[in-house]
């Protein structure tokens, strides 16, 4: 999913002359003649089919002249030319009687709750040129008329409805000779695409069929669409290769087939024919081969998406000639070589460069640092080495930087350079800088807009650095898998925006500070509604976050050397979804207050020296899906009457003094509860668990991301 995708091209491509003509018609005074009785009757018949008319009836019944009615436009002769009733919460069916309005040009019923079908009478009307019924709940098969009478229809937008079944065949489309724009995206059409759109509709300029279930090959006949500028059939199940004939449609400006099962290579001699191409999206298919040299001939190219394919080889130097490029998305392929061949300094308009998960090597080319408009740069999961170069601080617009999982060195240098990019909100640089020291306090400054910081998996030595204390917008902090020592500093509580803290697997010592129990965002509070420039991947490619706020509220202090007791004040962190204090040297009892953390889905206190009994009230934590208190020194009964009864033996293991039905040590007969009661209650709580699981389907996902391997890009 690429949020920026293809937007500017579509904006440019509304059907200008047509719309202009309509605007002129609509703009003229329409009161010269009032409407005739027959047209009025047709409109009332339309109204009669609505079960919810958004107060139209009031307006319409109060006035004799239908030309003055809300949503109705007439011409000089008092004949209805437009029915414009978008976004009126209309429900019910679309009446075929609209087809009796003999001078009707324009129907816009977009964004309502209309159901049923699209009456054939409208599509085959002798007058209507624009039908927009997008964003409704229309269903059934799309029926076109087989009448051969002249049909002037130019624009048909049936997108975002519930239409199903096979798309009408080529011969049915044949009568729509004037069709300019067809948008049937976001329905549930199945079967093959019609083979010959443009022998019948030679004026077709926009064809959008994305988000359906079309299968089979791309019909070569599309190549006859000499006027076609926009072709979007992404998110279907198309297979086979791009037919050579397709490239005869040389007016194409936007060619978009993401997320299908297409394969084959990109043939240079084909692509050069598309000299008007501004956006190419072939992402998430199975294309192989190299990017052809001739790509340099596509001088108007602004957006290039070839992500998530099996493409390989070096990026051709000719890419330098596509000087209009704004977005380059090549992540998740097998591209390799040094990037040095491409002179990025020519690509002055570039805003997004995403090369994540390839096999690029060498140094990060300094020519990238001349792209002064660059907003998002993602080079993570490649084989880049060396240090960041000084020029990076010229990227004043840079907001998102992800260079994790390479072999970069000198983190001190990296942070000193990055701090002057004032607009940085996301920095993901983990899995680099192995065994270096965490940079000293006084030299790092800046980062005042930082929201997300990941310096995980670097085996860094040193302490949690003081410069973090100045990051007042920091929401997410990943420092896990390093070798940081010393205590959690008290200033942590001044980080008013921080809601995801992972400092696990370090060598931190001391007690869990009271300051940590004061974190405002862990106590309550809404995360800011910000959006990542690129979706952030987590745990390989399995989880994708579009916004920082989609991350859960997490405190992970596991695998350190913390001592002392779990503070009673932990109960203040009411917003926590996951609390991990495992594998430390914590002692004393499990505080009762933990049982009030009602949002908890993950609670891991395993591998400590906790003693005393298990608080009964932990059973109140109905959302808990992962629970572990194994390897402590707990004693007494395991309270199995609620949520705790749903967890396996491994959650309780290694506490010799614990007893209960799920551990080896069954409670002595004098103390034991009757087994039958335990098991019924247990199954009862399983039902509760199943229900909560159904509601919070993200549980498994959360568990994975917290417990299993963590990697970002
Ligand atoms: C009006 O439309 C209805 C429904 O399509 C049709 O049955 C009827 O014959 C039409 N009447 C006229 C006068 O065209
Ligand atoms: C229909 O109305 C909606 C909302 O005003 C508008 O966005 C859309 O462009 C209109 N459709 C056409 C074809 O003009
Ligand atoms: C429906 O599609 C037409 C043609 O592409 C377009 O002009 C119109 O704005 C679209 N309607 C909406 C609501 O987007
Ligand atoms: C087609 O409709 C969808 C919404 O249903 C819209 O997002 C898209 O921009 C439209 N495409 C064109 C080319 O107008
Ligand atoms: C598809 O249609 C639904 C319902 O109108 C809408 O919520 C959704 O955003 C649309 N999706 C796309 C990709 O246009
Ligand atoms: C991708 O294409 C290759 C041939 O290039 C083929 O061997 C492989 O099975 C395809 N993979 C999928 C998932 O279709
Ligand atoms: C870019 O275009 C120029 C002028 O057309 C040409 O001379 C040059 O060889 C091209 N460069 C690359 C790298 O393709
Ligand atoms: C990537 O390319 C290399 C050779 O350049 C090949 O050995 C490797 O198998 C390829 N990897 C994938 C996932 O295709
Ligand atoms: C930095 O971000 C702000 C706020 O998002 C924006 O207004 C400004 O233009 C950006 N600066 C640059 C140099 O891009
Ligand atoms: C790391 O960067 C710092 C600051 O730029 C520099 O002083 C130092 O010499 C660099 N260290 C190495 C090993 O290159
Ligand atoms: C904890 O401290 C002990 C010594 O007290 C040391 O052996 C151990 O490696 C430390 N563990 C961690 C995770 O730092
Ligand atoms: C738990 O351990 C602490 C020492 O860490 C001790 O003071 C306390 O008495 C113990 N409590 C129980 C119930 O054994």
If you had to describe this structure to a student in words, what would you say it looks like?
By secondary structure, the protein is an alpha/beta fold. It has a domain at 475-486 and 494-669: Alpha-Beta Horseshoe (Leucine-rich repeat, LRR (right-handed beta-alpha superhelix)). 13% of the residues lie in helices and 23% in strands. The protein contains twelve helices and 47 strands. The chain has a 23-stranded mixed beta sheet, with helices on one face. A 15-stranded mixed beta sheet has the order 1-4-6-8-10-12-14-16-18-20-22-24-26-28-30. Strands 34-36-40-42-44-46-47 form a seven-stranded parallel beta sheet, with no helix packed on it. β37 (536-538) and β38 (543-545) form a beta hairpin. The longest helix is centred in the last third of the chain and has 21 residues, at 675-695. The chain starts with 6 loop residues before the first helix and ends in a 6-residue tail after the last helix. 47% of the residues are buried. Mean pLDDT is 88; it is low at 1-16, 18-31 and 670-709. Bound molecules: 2-acetamido-2-deoxy-beta-D-glucopyranose (12 copies). One 2-acetamido-2-deoxy-beta-D-glucopyranose (NAG) binds at residues 135, 160, 186, 211. The chain crosses the membrane at residues 687-708. Keywords: Cell membrane, Leucine-rich repeat, Membrane, Repeat, Signal, Transmembrane, Transmembrane helix. It holds the Pfam family LRR_1.
């Amino acid at each position: 999913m690429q949020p920026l995708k293809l937007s500017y091209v579509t904006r440019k491509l509304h059907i200008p002359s047509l719309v202009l003509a309509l605007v002129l018609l609509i703009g003229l005074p329409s009161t010269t003649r009032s409407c005739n009785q027959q047209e009025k009757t047709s409109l009332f018949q339309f109204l009669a089919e609505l079960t919810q008319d958004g107060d139209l009836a009031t307006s319409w019944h109060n006035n004799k002249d239908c030309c003055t009615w809300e949503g109705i436009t007439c011409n000089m002769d008092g004949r209805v030319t437009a029915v414009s009733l978008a976004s009126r919460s209309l429900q019910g069916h679309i009446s075929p009687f609209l087809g009796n309005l003999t001078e009707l040009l324009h129907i816009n019923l977009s964004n309502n709750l209309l159901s049923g079908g699209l009456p054939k009478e409208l599509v085959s009307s002798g007058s209507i040129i624009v039908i927009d019924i997008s964003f409704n709940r229309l269903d059934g098969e799309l029926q076109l008329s087989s009448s051969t009478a002249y049909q002037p229809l130019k624009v048909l937008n049936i997108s975002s409805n519930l239409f199903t079944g096979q798309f009408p065949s080529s011969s049915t489309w044949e009568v729509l000779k004037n069709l300019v724009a067809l948008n049937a995206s976001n329905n549930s059409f199945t079967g093959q695409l019609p083979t010959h759109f443009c022998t019948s509709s030679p004026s077709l300029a926009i064809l959008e069929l994305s988000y359906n279930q079309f299968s089979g090959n791309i019909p070569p006949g599309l190549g006859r669409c000499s006027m076609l500028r926009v072709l979007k059939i992404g998110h279907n199940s198309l297979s086979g290769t791009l037919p050579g004939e397709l490239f005869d449609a040389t007016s194409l400006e936007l060619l978009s087939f993401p997320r299908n099962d297409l394969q084959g290579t990109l043939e240079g001699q084909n692509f050069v024919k598309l000299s008007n191409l501004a956006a190419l999206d072939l992402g998430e298919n199975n294309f192989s081969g190299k990017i052809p040299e001739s790509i340099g001939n596509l001088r108007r190219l602004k957006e290039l998406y070839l992500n998530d394919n099996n493409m390989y080889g070096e990026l051709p130097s000719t890419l330098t000639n596509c000087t209009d490029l704004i977005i380059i998305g090549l992540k998740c392929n097998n591209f390799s070589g040094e990037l040095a061949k491409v002179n990025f300094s020519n690509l002055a308009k570039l805003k997004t460069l995403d090369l994540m998960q390839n096999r690029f090597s060498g140094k990060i080319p300094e020519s990238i640092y001349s792209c002064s408009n660059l907003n998002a740069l993602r080079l993570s999961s490649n084989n880049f080495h060396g240090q960041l170069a000084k020029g990076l601080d010229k990227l004043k617009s840079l907001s998102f930087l992800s260079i994790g999982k390479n072999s970069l060195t000198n983190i001190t240098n990296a942070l000193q350079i990055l701090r002057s990019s004032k607009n940085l909100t996301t920095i993901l640089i983990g899995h680099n800088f192995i065994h270096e020291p965490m940079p000293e306090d006084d030299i790092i400054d800046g980062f005042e807009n930082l929201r997300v910081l990941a310096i995980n998996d670097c085996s860094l030595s040193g302490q949690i650095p003081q410069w973090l204390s100045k990051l007042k917008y920091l929401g997410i902090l990943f420092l896990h898998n390093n070798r940081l020592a010393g205590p959690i500093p008290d200033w942590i509580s001044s980080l008013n925006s921080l809601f995801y803290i992972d400092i696990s697997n370090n060598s931190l010592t001391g007690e869990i500070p009271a300051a940590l129990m004061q974190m405002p965002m862990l106590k309550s509070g809404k995360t800011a509604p910000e959006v990542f420039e690129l979706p952030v991947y987590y745990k390989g490619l399995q989880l994708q976050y579009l916004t920082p706020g989609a991350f859960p509220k997490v405190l992970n202090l596991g695998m350190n050397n913390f001592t002392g007791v779990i503070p009673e004040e932990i109960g203040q962190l009411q917003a926590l979804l996951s609390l991990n204090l495992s594998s430390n040297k914590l002692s004393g009892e499990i505080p009762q207050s933990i049982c009030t953390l009602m949002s908890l889905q993950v609670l891991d206190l395993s591998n400590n020296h906790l003693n005393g009994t298990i608080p009964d009230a932990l059973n109140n934590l109905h959302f808990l899906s992962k629970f572990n208190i194994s390897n402590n020194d707990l004693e007494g009964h395991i309270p199995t009457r609620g949520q705790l009864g749903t967890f396996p033996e491994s959650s309780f293991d290694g506490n010799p003094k614990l007893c209960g039905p799920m551990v080896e040590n069954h409670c002595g007969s004098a103390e034991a509860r009757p087994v039958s009661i335990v098991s019924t209650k247990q199954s009862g709580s399983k039902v509760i668990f199943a229900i909560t699981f159904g509601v919070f389907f993200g549980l498994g996902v959360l568990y994975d991301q917290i417990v299993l391997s963590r990697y970002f890009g």
